[in-house]
Design a protein that fits this description.
- With 263 residues, this protein is an alpha/beta fold.
- Helices cover 44% and strands 13% of the residues.
- The chain has ten helices and six strands; from the N terminus they run ααααββββαβααβααα.
- Strands 1, 2, 3, 4, 5 and 6 form a six-stranded mixed beta sheet that branches.
- α3 packs across α4.
- The longest helix has 17 residues.
- The radius of gyration is 26 Å and the shape is elongated.
- The chain starts with a helix and ends with a helix.
- The mean pLDDT is 88.
Length: 263
């Protein structure tokens, strides 16, 4: 087909369908909401603006313009169904602790850097929010969780009555994990399925880490982020003060409590 013929038919089709104004309105809404709106919400917004189009027409026009609603990346989920014993929710959203090492919580979060995934598995003390131990892995395997536990056990003399809370992820249903807790007389607690508020303290830490570290800059590599993550956890434990801890960092608050308890 000759170039002039091609452009003649293209121009004729554009003039014939009568949707030039609609295309402009769709583009404006799409850009205004940074690609978060798909065709359904754009259809509703067009109606709010006095432009009444069928949702299928909006979908077709968006496809022609290569406009697609952006999807939030799926959050890492370790729950794979019941493969082992499910512990009761002993914590039951009571995140208060009168002393260190009475209530611990754990979870796993996924971070993606340059198409490479990193998994952080920490234990957090509910008394002061301190990260007791952690492991960082490029694979969300059982070794990651067990090495985190082993580091905690080497660091802390486990007191009687310690509760360790988690979700119902496969790592925490695993026989090795549950035996490690039983051998040290640690009470296992689990959130209800699909209820992140049952583990709000750990979710809060993950949110802080991502807002104060992950989202602050562009990362050149997963290894670079891993090194900075290790530094951040040290900073979080030792230097980052908390209002609920009367202006002390988690380590400072624990040390102050222990010094007072010694008298």
């Amino acid at each position: 087909m000759a170039r002039a013929t091609f452009y003649y038919h293209t121009r004729r089709l554009s003039e014939a369908d009568g949707y030039d104004d609609a295309r402009a309105a769709i583009r404006k809404i799409y850009d205004q909401h940074k690609g978060r709106y798909g065709y359904r919400r754009i259809t509703l917004q067009l109606r709010n603006d006095g432009i009444h189009l069928n949702h299928k027409t909006v979908q077709k026009l968006m496809a022609e313009m290569c406009l697609y609603g952006k999807r939030k990346k799926a959050k890492y989920k370790s729950y794979k169904g019941e493969i082992g014993k499910i512990a009761p929710n002993v914590i039951d959203r009571d995140f208060t602790a009168a002393a260190p090492n009475q209530k611990w919580t754990t979870d796993v979060t996924e971070v993606k850097i340059k198409d490479k995934k990193i998994y952080l598995s920490p234990i957090l003390d509910m008394f002061n929010g301190e990260i007791v131990s952690y492991s960082i892995s490029y694979s969300p395997n059982q070794h990651m969780v067990m090495s985190m536990l082993e580091r905690a056990f080497k660091k802390i003399h486990i007191p009687a009555g310690l509760i360790l809370h988690s979700d119902q992820g496969l790592h925490y249903q695993h026989q090795r994990y549950q035996k490690a807790l039983t051998d040290r007389h640690i009470t296992q607690s689990m959130s209800r399925k699909g209820n992140c508020l049952d583990n709000a303290m750990m979710e809060n830490f993950f949110g802080l880490m991502k807002s104060e570290l992950l989202y602050l800059q562009e990362w050149d590599s997963a290894d670079q982020f891993k090194k900075e993550l290790i530094r951040y956890i040290h900073y979080y434990n030792n230097d980052r003060i908390k209002l609920r801890l009367n202006g002390k960092s988690p380590v400072q608050y624990r040390a102050l409590f222990q010094s007072k308890s010694a008298y």
